[in-house]
Amino acid sequence: MTEEHARLAVLSDIHGVLPALETVLAEPEVAAADRIVLTGDITAGPQPAEVLDRLREEGERVLWVGGNADRELVEYRRGARTDIPDPIGPYAARQLREDQVDFLAGLPRTLTLRVRGLGTVLFCHATPRDDEELVLVDSRPDRWAEVFTGLDPGIGTVVCGHTHMPYVRLAHGRLVVNPGSVGMPYGRPGAHWCLLGPGTDLRVTPYDIPAAVARLTAECAYPDIADWADYFLHARATDTEVLAAWGPKAGS
User: Fold this and answer.
1) Where is the Calcineurin-like phosphoesterase domain (predicted)?
2) C-alpha–C-alpha distance, residues 144 and 250, integer Å
């Protein structure tokens, strides 16, 4: 019989921001969860090697799913691409050790678990079929039908990340959960994550953002780190702006 988990902590889109990750891992309910599930874009940011090392300290408690940004770092390091759309991407790729590149290359694109109260849950980065496809809280039903094509009918819940904005919604009878972003939130600051089992509980952990900006600026050699940290940690991109920009591609 497949193991059923009572309580999972889900962290997505950490993007190499170690201070944000540390504040979430310090949450008592994260420490008490059966497992920590990562839904991708773990490393593309200012402290990719440090973030990977910290997460791997948790051992088998962490269950991993790779995201498009993790894949891009691997492809860049292995010569499969010469650029990365995210400006900080090449810097992040160069910070990774070879063993870390190999580790990222081996991450699965999806993960299926049984969770108490939610049944069979599929974890992915963007959508079940693609690691950079866009769906949003206001995507139309026909868009959700499209991205669910071929999905096992026994999967009643889909947990995704990628868009850095938390939400819970129903789509064609399936519960869709996006925990938001730990390291690069859109809409409001803080480290966003969620608890699963027996229900869904979206969380945001506040932390000292000015101190985190100062720490990243001091510890990271990326040339534009001060501006990068100020913009993303303060969540200066609003949810309204992002929804408007991505809506056409996401079928909103």
Assistant:
1) 7-193
2) 9
Q: How do residues 39-52 score in pLDDT, each as one tens digit?
A: 999 999 999 999 99
CA 243 to CA 170: how far, in whole Å?
18
Return the CA Rg of the chain: 17
How far is the C-alpha of 65 from the C-alpha of 70, rounded, in Å? 10
Pick the closest to residue 172 from 147, 189, 191, 192 (CA basis).
147
Helix count and strand count (H, E) for the chain: 10, 11
Overall pTM > 0.70: yes
Strands 4-5 and 110-115: parallel
Strand 155-159 and strand 174-178: the pairing is parallel
Token representation of residue 125: 């980065």
Q: Nearest 5°: CA angle at 234, between 231 and 236?
A: 60
HSE (side-chain half, CA atoms, 13 Å) at 91: 15
